[in-house]
Structure formats: C-alpha cells, structure tokens
Amino acid sequence: MHEEGSRTSMLLCYGGGICFALGWWLWIDACAFSATQLDAKIDFGYWIPGIVSSFALILINIVSPAALDTSASWDNSMLARARGFLFFAFTIAFGGLIASVWLAIVHWFNDTSISNFPGIALILQSSFIFLAAVMVRFAKLPEDGYGGL
C-alpha cells in the first residue's frame, strides 16, 4: 500500500510540475506571438495574474497538512490559524484566476480586430497554475506525516 501511495504521490508531483511549466510556457508563447504576429507589446499588468497565481501555489503548499489534522495535539487556535491561512491562500489563487478572466475579456475578447490567443493563454496559465497547486497539495503522503487535506 505504501508503494502505491508513493507512486501516486510521485505522479501528482510530476503532474503539478508539468501543469506549472505548461501554464508559463503558454503565456510566454502568447507574449512572443503578440510581439511578432500582432505587433503589440504585452504590458506588465497582464503578467500580474500569473505572478499572483504562482505566489498562491507557494502559499497553498506552505501549510503543513499535520497542522490541519483535528486529531493532533494542536490547540484550537493553531488549527484555526492554519485553516485561515489556507483559506487566504486559496482566495489569492482564485483572485489570480478571476483577474486573468477579467483582463482577457476586457482586452482581447471585446476587440474582434485582434487574435484571442493571448487572452486564452492568460486564462489557461492561471488555470494550470491553480491545478498544479492543488495537485502538489494532495501529493503529500500520510505515512510521511504530510497527508493531504
């Protein structure tokens, strides 16, 4: 059983890394496409949802799953702080995802004279980074004291 859990954990970690890399690769490709094919420069403001989502990935995975265990010997204030921090981290992650959708709609989807590819890539970037955060979060093994949510 431990070997199967270890294999699942390894696959989830690899999958999370692939999703994270794929998200950033899509966005960088969209920036290159925009600069070469559309003759338009992507401003720094459009990079912020990806940066925020990457920061949220770190915050989501910084909370030890042992700190969320109700059967552990933690006091209630420690459990409440861990849950509050995790809620805050997921709020930031959803904020990055919502910001990417909003920016894509306002800049690319409302203007039919330009390609929608950078907007789609922006949404996919934040989505893949969020998926990576969740995959890595659930990849931790209970046998190692790092059980998932």
Quick recap of the structure?
This protein has 149 residues and is mostly helical. The protein is 71% helix and 0% strand.
Provide tags for this entry.
mainly alpha; single chain; 149 residues
Give structural notes.
With 149 residues, this protein is mostly helical. The protein has helices at 2-36, 48-62, 76-109, 117-138. Helix 2 runs antiparallel to helix 3 and helix 3 packs antiparallel against helix 4 (117-138). The longest helix has 35 residues, at 2-36.
Q: Averaged pLDDT, please?
A: 88
Helix percent reads over 70%
Strand residue percentage:
under 5%
How would you sum up the major sheet? none
Discrete helix count: 4
Radius of gyration: 18 Å
Q: Pairing-aware structural class of the strands and helices?
A: mainly alpha
So what's the overall shape?
Answer: elongated
Question: What is the N-to-C order of secondary-structure elements (H for helix, E for strand)?
Answer: HHHH
Low-confidence stretches: none
For the secondary structure, the number of strands is: 0
Give the CA-CA distance, first to last residue.
19 Å
